[in-house]
Amino acid sequence: MADNTDATVHKTPPRNSTLSADSEAGLKSTPLAVGSAAVSEHISTVGVEVNDVRPWIARDVQNFEKCEADTMLQELLARCTGSSQNLSGSQKSKLLETALNAVLPICNVGAVAQEIKGHLTDFCDIEREPLSYTPFVKAANCALRELSKVNVDGIPAFKIDDKTNVLLHVNDPKPIYQDHQDKQSERKPDLVVVSHETALGKKSHETQESQVLTETACKSPKDNFQWTDIRSTLELKRTRKFLTHPPSAYKTDYVVPSPSAQYMEYRKDANGPAKPTGSISATGSAQTPHETSNELRPSSQLSRGVKRKRGGNDEDRTEEKEPTKIPAIVQNGLYVAEMFAAHIARQHVISFIVNNDNIYIWVCDRETTIQGAAINFVQDLPRWLVLLLIMQRMGYEQWGLNRVFEPEPGFSGKVMVEVENTQIDLELDVKSKERVTHFGIRGRATTVFPVKSKALSDLQRDPCFPNESSELVAKLYWPEETRQSEPDILNEVYKIAQTDLDVRGHVPELVWFHKFEDTSTSKIRVALGLKDAEQAEQGSRVLYIIVFRKLIPITTLSGEEFLAAWWQVVKCHRALWKGGVLHRDVSPSNLMVYRLRGQYIGVLNDYDLSSFKRDGPRGLERTGTVPFMAANLLSPAGIAGKVEHVYAHDAESLIWVLTWVCLRYEGGILLSKNRPLEEWLKMDASMCADKKAGFWSAKIGDVCPSGSHKTSWKLVEKCFDGIHSLYLPSGYRKLTDESAFQLLLEGPMLEHESRRRTYS
């Protein structure tokens, strides 16, 4: 399962998890939905503009779950205690009450209270967003300094440690870069939460803490921050000129926001880009630099720290297609995706949006996004200070880092996983060029990289797997809990392989796996009252690690070598379908090979979306990868889950993979430019279905395969004759599985072999 640079992009993402049992009963397949799972893997194929990524992130964040402000604060406080799961609702409520009373004196008494109020008054009087950064940061950091003296029963006491103590820091307009395979992103969050050590940077020995809190943090950093060092981000928006000043005294009662300000809603205007409800037009207001610079482009086009020219001659600018204003919740979503991508198996990301004088807490994980109701930090200062106290006392795990794989930010080294009193050592090569990364929020978020393990290397090899490689790869991902697990699917696959030679040696070798039970995304939703215990697993995800014997992407092959391996996969897929194992996710990245005695052997890989024929559709995640899915499944009925997923659909997918590789790879390497079908990577299901119909009916004669795949093109054309015959004016032509195999695959392949023997 090595990196396949051009493979799967539009993984069809999770559908709405609110479908009733009655509505699911009528489904013939899991319906198509939207979200960043579509682009969460192989980001290098998406394109160089963030426009290709942004719409998918937008779909993740616009369908958020809602949570009351105090409920969110109670749960985050409880998590600081380290025993959140053991606290009752009344205990969490009491904890918040205690914390509010503990911070109240800071709000009302003494010079510090006046200093904080002074900064908040300055914030209220400033009309332009960029100028509001400084008073906001000063108020927050002044409060954090005073909160270090506060003790709340059950909450860990403050410890002086520059690695863990946090502060708010202005970031904009300094870019933060991150590599995503062969692309590099550039983001400019307004404010960030970082450790004192990160804020001090290289001059930590020269700068006093008071300078960091009062001066340095109010300016953009001299050196670019790294996403691995960012605890969180704050996106500020200013749509009102005048904000009400702080009151003379504060109480602990919740200040209820206006109905329009209770949550940040995503709304698409008919004549402009999407923006949150409750905001007014920003026309004429100052535009901060980050609003035109969120993009992905080839790494070779960027040098870290080099400023890009803005304005002036068009030739001095990088061409961009971003709307003038990106909605705040979409900008926040892009930053969340970056924070996820910067860490291994991150559980969740906590981020913030400040809209005028309201702050909104966002908790994002691989299931959905959750937004806390507004806290007016000017009028309800005690709750803001409780939030700052939470940020100050949270450990790495509470911020979302995985304690096994990343005990501290940026950790890279050997980790130990304890399974039934046995220690499994894993040395993950997270910086490998072969690493397959993800970019997105919701979905499986698959990450694959080389791994070494003495314990696993010492295991006895199974003679049923002739792969000669001794190298291993680890796959970390977040499948749905209700879906049949990949290890269970592979167990059935291996049973079939014992008696079927078309399967034996043509499936991946699972070496070891582990399910991290405590990572279920259902836990926070039950704690917040968003789910009850009975429906907890519906739509929830959990972290798995699976270690496989290393394979090679089939796209590295050409000519007859490629075609022979592809046909072995076709036969393996057919045999498994007969045996009751439905793969349902045929794409280039899932077709692999290995070497055996000088020959390449084809492997049908990746069974995390597979199912058993006897079970029917399970889980909430659509099975398929848009550019390679049968057009019939991309129809309106297919999108709604009203089309039964039959063998002919997967057969069509195998043909689309064959076509894709023949057109886009030369000598085993992805073409660098003028790649046919490129636009399919960026289309939704219905648009892609239209393009497919046009391709097989007319356009196939207008495209040419690469030089290294010319010998396969006649086979492609013959396969499409079969596909074309299925799509009739009266509807989709239904065939038996065997008839579909003969028409779409076996017949064309026999004709190809006959023609090859004639001319050889």
TrEMBL record:
User: Which residue intervals make up region (Disordered)?
Assistant: 1-25, 268-324
What the entry lists under InterPro entries is as follows:
Kinase-like_dom_sf, Pkinase_fungal
Q: Where is the composition biased (Basic and acidic residues)?
A: 311-324
Comp. bias (Polar residues): 278-303
Do you know which SUPFAM superfamilies this protein is assigned to? Protein kinase-like (PK-like)
Residues in Fungal-type protein kinase domain copies: 329-662
Q: Which PANTHER family does the UniProt entry name for this protein?
A: FUNK1 11, FUNK1 6
Q: What is this protein called?
A: Fungal-type protein kinase domain-containing protein
Organism, scientific name: Suillus discolor
